[in-house]
Specification:
Rossmann fold; Alpha-Beta Plaits; globular; 34% helix; alpha/beta; 12 strands; 11 helices; 2 domains; eight-stranded mixed sheet; 300 residues; binds flavin mononucleotide
């Protein structure tokens, strides 16, 4: 059996999970490679992204596809990746396992969205994982949400999942088609995610905006290197946004790594902190109601 783990992971949590999946999968005899598409210039600047992606997944029996939850949705860059997978023709089979990491507030409808897209292309979704992780926007809070997660707590869960898949494969019992959805949320979560938390709206109007403060910049180039969607390039005047750059996703990677504060978020962090704490304590618009926080969902 051949597998690939495709990742988009701006702040590295999903990548951590992807690496564990790759390692355990290889240990169990599944020939597995990892493709991290974050900051990947070959992918991001490719003139034919569809071809790039489909080369990666060709000849694979199993696809793991992982990304973060933003505004209770599967990050739209991950959706973009999945949408480029070629639709399977009759008789062809590819199993898929989506996985998401989320910052302990709410994983929203991300797994469900991944599953819907994969099923639309005739892929057989056999499982899904949601993993509670450090909230990458809370680095400046008094208490970082889920600091340093995921850690070793995910190992048994992933080990068991891979072993189960290998067992099912060896017994010829992997399902041909799965019925139902990885939709573990209440209807109210689904509605609120789709009506109130429209991801692109939040990106454009609600998330903290980034501002360059050039007088502090020492041209170290960290922001250029670390931006997950490679928005910046180094010019003789310092870092600048590329022409036709992809939109900023507000992950904060550039801001939090800039020791000179040449890049800052324009944000009322106290307000954000209050809002997040309210949600995490179960009293927000989309309260945290996920127990257990990390979980494998398996169709059988
Ligand atoms: C703009 C933005 C929106 C986010 N929205 C949510 C959310 O709706 N619910 C949640 O629990 N975490 C949310 N998070 C936290 C991320 O899902 C979490 O940190 C995730 O593990 C990041 O994955 P990565 O490290 O692979 O980028 C958000 C983070 C950012 C930057």
């Amino acid at each position: 059996m051949k597998a690939i783990v495709i990742i988009f992971s701006p702040s590295g949590n999903t990548l951590k999970v992807g690496k564990v999946i790759t390692e355990y999968s290889n240990l169990q005899g599944i020939d597995t490679q990892i493709a991290d598409l974050t900051r990947n210039k070959d992918y991001l600047f490719s003139l034919n992204r569809k071809e790039y992606i489909n080369k990666l997944i060709k000849d694979k029996d199993l696809l793991f596809i992982g990304g973060p939850v933003y505004a209770h949705h599967l990050h739209y860059n991950v959706k973009e990746i999945i949408k480029q997978f070629e639709k399977l023709k009759n008789g062809n089979k590819q199993y898929a396992i989506p996985f998401v990491t989320y910052g302990g507030i709410n994983s929203g409808i991300a797994l469900h969205e991944a599953e819907k897209l994969l099923k639309k292309q005739n892929r057989t979704v056999i499982a899904g994982l949601k993993i509670s992780a450090e909230h990458c926007l809370t680095k400046k809070f008094k208490t970082v949400f889920n600091e340093n997660l995921p850690g070793n707590e995910i190992l048994p869960m992933i080990d068991e999942l891979i072993k189960t898949i290998v067992d099912l494969k060896n017994n010829n019992s992997l399902p041909n088609k799965t019925i139902g959805f990885l939709n573990y949320q209440k209807l109210s979560v689904l509605l609120k995610a789709n009506i109130i938390f429209r991801e692109k709206f939040w990106q454009k109007h609600m998330y903290p905006k980034i501002k360059f403060n050039y007088s502090n910049c020492n041209n170290c180039g960290k922001c250029v290197k670390l931006c997950p969607v490679q928005r910046y390039e180094m010019t003789e005047n310092g870092p600048a946004v590329r022409k036709n750059a992809k939109d900023c996703i507000h992950c904060g990677k550039c801001v939090f790594s800039c020791k000179k504060e040449a890049l800052i978020f324009i944000a009322d962090w106290q307000k954000w902190e209050k809002m997040f704490e309210k949600a995490a304590s179960g009293q927000g618009l989309l309260p945290s109601n996920e127990f257990p926080r990390s979980k494998v969902f398996l169709y059988n």
